[in-house]
C-alpha cells in the first residue's frame, strides 16, 4: 500500500533529474563561449608562477636608475626568509617574504654602524631605503629587479 503512493513520484523525479541534461531550442540559440586560442589553435596554458631565487647571491648594478660604483651593495635571501648583505659600507639583515604574484614584503632593516665616506653613505642610504620599500620582484634577463615606492634596484647574479 505504501509503495502505491510513491509510484507517482518516480516519473516526476526523473524529470527533475534529467531536465538539465536535455537541450532546449532556447539553449541551442545561445552562442557558446570559446576559450581563447593561440596561433596554433591550441588553448594557451597559464604561466606557472615564478619562484623567488632563495639562496642566490646578488650584487646591485643600479639603484634608483643610477649605476652603482665603488663597493656595490649585495643581497641574499635565504630559505629562512632572512635578507642579508652589504649596503655599500655596513652589513644589514631583515626579514623578506616573497609572496604570490611576485610581490615582496621586507621588514625593518638592522644595520651595523660603521663610519663611511659621503659617497658610500649616500649609496647605502638609497639602497636600504629602496630595499625596505620594495613591493615587487622579477627576474628579467638574468637580473633580479626589485621595485617599490622608493625606486628600483637591479641586481646581477654574484659568484
What does this molecule look like?
The protein has 159 residues and is α+β, with helices and mostly antiparallel strands. The chain is built from 4 helices and 10 strands; from the N terminus they run αααβββββββαβββ. Helices cover 22% and strands 32% of the residues. It is elongated.
Question: What brief labels describe this structure?
Answer:
single chain; 159 residues; alpha+beta; ten-stranded antiparallel β-sheet; 4 helices
Question: What is the element layout, followed by pairings?
Answer:
Layout: H1 2-6, H2 9-18, H3 25-29, E1 57-63, E2 66-67, E3 74-77, E4 82-86, E5 91-98, E6 104-106, E7 110-111, H4 118-132, E8 134-140, E9 143-148, E10 151-157
Strand count, sense and closure of the main sheet? 10 strands, antiparallel
Mind telling me the C-alpha Rg? 29 Å
User: Using DSSP, what is the number of strands?
Assistant: 10
The parts where pLDDT drops under 50 for at least 5 residues are 6-28
Residues in β-strands, percent: 25-35%
Please trace the helix and strand order, writing H or E for each element.
HHHEEEEEEEHEEE
Amino acid at each position: 500500500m505504501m509503495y502505491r503512493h510513491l509510484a507517482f513520484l518516480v516519473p516526476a523525479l526523473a524529470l527533475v533529474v534529467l531536465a538539465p541534461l536535455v537541450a532546449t531550442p532556447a539553449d541551442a540559440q545561445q552562442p557558446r563561449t570559446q576559450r581563447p586560442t593561440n596561433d596554433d589553435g591550441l588553448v594557451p596554458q597559464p604561466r606557472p608562477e615564478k619562484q623567488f631565487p632563495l639562496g642566490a647571491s646578488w650584487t646591485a648594478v643600479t639603484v634608483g636608475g643610477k649605476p652603482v660604483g665603488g663597493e656595490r651593495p649585495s643581497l641574499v635571501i635565504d630559505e629562512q626568509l632572512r635578507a642579508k648583505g652589504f649596503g655599500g659600507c655596513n652589513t644589514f639583515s631583515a626579514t623578506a617574504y616573497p609572496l604570490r604574484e611576485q610581490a615582496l614584503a621586507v621588514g625593518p632593516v638592522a644595520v651595523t654602524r660603521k663610519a663611511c665616506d659621503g659617497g658610500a653613505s649616500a649609496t647605502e642610504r638609497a639602497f636600504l631605503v629602496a630595499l625596505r620599500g620594495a613591493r615587487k620582484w622579477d627576474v628579467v634577463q638574468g637580473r633580479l629587479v626589485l621595485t617599490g615606492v622608493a625606486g628600483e634596484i637591479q641586481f646581477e647574479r654574484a659568484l
